[in-house]
């Protein structure tokens, strides 16, 4: 999971269970978020998977390790 900015818009990049794939969710369209007890499986995140052709993908916070 991560965030990508484009212009003045921010996108949450995360796995979509409904579509069974990596998706970009526009931040201003997210109206509700509920934490779940289950943990998401780790998946590699590459700029190419998101269609980012210019710019860089930067990890700003490491993922938490399961305890």
Automatic annotation (TrEMBL):
It comes from the Bacteria. Residues 2-33 form the WYL domain. Pfam families: WYL. This is WYL domain-containing protein. It comes from Glaciihabitans tibetensis.
